[in-house]
Structures are given as C-alpha cells and as structure tokens.
Amino acid sequence: MGKFGKKNKVSENIPTSALPDIIFMLLFFFMVTTVLRDQEILVEQKIPQATQLQKLQKKTLISYIFIGKPKNTALYGTEPRVQANDALLNTPDIVQWVNQERDLLPEADRGLITISMKADRDVKMGPISDVQTELREADARRILYASTGKVNND
Amino acid sequence: MARKKNRMSTEVNAGSMADIAFLLLIFFLVTTTIASDKGILNILPPKLDPNNPPPKIDLNERNIFTILLNANDQLLVEGEFRDDPEGLDEDIKAFILNFGAPDEEAAALYNTLPASLKALSAKLPESSDDPGEAVVSIKTDRGTSYDKYLEVFDLTKKAYFDIYAERVNLSTDEYRALTGKNDAEVSLQDRGKEGIPMAISIAEPNKIGGN
C-alpha cells in the first residue's frame, strides 16, 4: 500500500502553459495561408489529377473559369455550365468576360493573360472544346488545365 | 488590509487564451482554401481568320503521332487499339526521337543528345523523320471525358519534359519546376527545348457521344 501512496504523490498535471503558443502558431499559419473565398462556386468541382503540373510565376495574370454540372440542378439543369466570377455564363459571353478580365490587367501584361480552367472530371470534351474555341476567339490562348498532383505508383 | 491585498493574484488569468485561440483557429481552418494554381499549361492556336485561312502544311503521315480518343474513352494510338493510356509516354518519346530521315541540322542535334536519349532512336523509316518535324496529334470526340483527355495530354507533356530534362541532366520534376525567373533557369529551359519543339496538336472534336 505504501508503494501506491508514493506513486500518487507524483504530479499528474501536464503543463499546459505552452498550449496557447502552439495554438497561436497554428492560427498564424492558417491566417497567412488562407484566402477568403470571394465567390461562391455554383458548379461541381472535382478537379482531375495529373502528374506534369506547372506553377505560374505571376498569379495576377490568372483568371479562373469553372466548368461543371451545376450544384443547383433544379434551377440550372444537369448539363455542364460555365462559371466565371460569380455567375453562370453562356458560352458566347465568354469573349466579353475575357475582355473585361484583360482590361483589369496592366497594359504590358495583357497579352499574357492565362485562363485557369477548373473543370470537373466528369465533364465531357464537348463543352470544354466550346470554351476553348471561345477563348481562341477572345485571343486568350494561354490556358491552364487546373489539376491536382497524382502520386505515381511506379 | 495590506495582507489581503498581497494575497490577490497579480497574474492575468491566461487559461482562456487557448480557448480564444482555438476558436480563431477553427474559424480559419474552416474558411481556408489553400490556393492551388497548379495545372497543365496549354497554348491554344490562334483564332481562325475566315479571310486568311491557315497555310496548308503537308506533313508526312509518318511525322504525325495520332492519338484518337473515342466517346467510350478508348484509344486508337497510331492505328492500334488500346484500353488504357499506360506506357503512352514511352511510345511518344520513341516517336519523337526516332530520327528516321534526319537532315543535316537534325543529325547535328542527334549528336548533342545524351547517350540515354540516343538509345531511344530506332531510326525506323515509318516513324518520324526528326524531332523538328514530329507532331503529336490528339483528337477526341465530344463525348470523351475530360479526365481521360487530360490523362493523355499529361502523358504527352511528360514525354517532352522527360526528354528536355534528360538533355540538361535534371530530373523531370526539377525541370518542370523551372520558372524562368532568372537567366540561369531560362538558359536551362532553352537548352532543354532547343531543336525539339513541343508540337502537340489538339484537333477539333468529332460530334459523337456528346452535344
């Protein structure tokens, strides 16, 4: 019994004084990396995987276009739609949207505008190629097929 | 009176600090989307001018590596049926580096290649003449899934990046990570690409299996 008594004397408190520091560190990490979502995405986004990813140097040159099945199928139907900024676009309106985006860039960079195509993996090539045709029409020919990294099995 | 005052704790109670920090942490955890600006870069051809049609370029059939993707996501690579694109990158590399009938310039290019790439050159008369002439053509149907198309496009890019990286003695990942932000990187990129243009042609899709 005496032995047990001795054991009980050992302090059971875990020092928690460093806990706030750790939490703050995590907090700052997330505060720095966070990008508050400025637009609601109205289409499904399951980004496909690929291996040959490249990163662009200048993020300001990128404009995003989202392609996928609308989340609200009751309102927008089940056919894949194109979203730019926070509204769904019809394919012919893409040219106008590209020109608006291009006007936001400094003059020297206008030729380098890059469209990041965030397309859902279930989309067929039909809508994608329509969008590409429009982008060619708008002379925004640098496109980035947004994709996430794939772990190589071999 | 004095004794009572001394007993009062002078420390600020910091116990709830962790709670506050946790609350903020959870907020940022939920709202965060780690920006992903990664992707596969593609340069589209210029738009068609109806008054000024593009010049017809006659390419020998042997200089075109055709990949057809149908609405069932099946492949026809150089006339051969395939179910999955596995190994396509190796075939494309062998096609680009075939050197079937190199002209003088291409022969000089061949001599600059490292031994590992020279080994890929089969010099088949029915495959590409030289890397400058070789074109990889990808054609899909409208009903082909984007996922499959991207997989094939990815493998095609991989074939070219593998070659470029091999030429400058880097791993493919290292070569791709070059952004050209300083002269050293630009020169590496240029040395990799020299004489071997990335010629990937993406044809207008057939109207099958989609709308």
UniProtKB/TrEMBL annotation, chain A:
Any one of the GO BP annotations: protein transport
GO terms for cellular component: plasma membrane
GO molecular function list: transmembrane transporter activity
Entry's localization field: Cell membrane
Chief site of localization: membrane
Acetylation found in the keyword field: no
Pfam families: ExbD
InterPro entries: ExbD (IPR003400)
Topology relative to the membrane: Single-pass membrane protein; Single-pass type II membrane protein
Assigned keywords, A-Z: Cell membrane, Membrane, Protein transport, Transmembrane, Transmembrane helix, Transport
Ranges that cross the membrane: 18-36
Similarity remark: Belongs to the ExbD/TolR family.
Identification of the protein by name: Biopolymer transport protein ExbD
Organism classification: Bacteria, Pseudomonadati, Bacteroidota, Cytophagia, Cytophagales
UniProtKB/TrEMBL annotation, chain B:
Gene Ontology molecular functions: transmembrane transporter activity
Main location class: membrane
Pfam families reported in the protein's UniProt record: ExbD (PF02472)
Leader peptide range in chain numbering: none
Family listed: Belongs to the ExbD/TolR family.
UniProt-annotated location(s): Cell membrane
Key words, A-Z: Cell membrane, Membrane, Protein transport, Transmembrane, Transmembrane helix, Transport
GO biological process: one example: protein transport
Bilayer topology term: Single-pass membrane protein; Single-pass type II membrane protein
Keyword Amino-acid biosynthesis attributed: no
GO cellular component: plasma membrane
Species of the source: Algoriphagus locisalis
Domain of life according to the entry: Bacteria
Protein name: Biopolymer transport protein ExbD
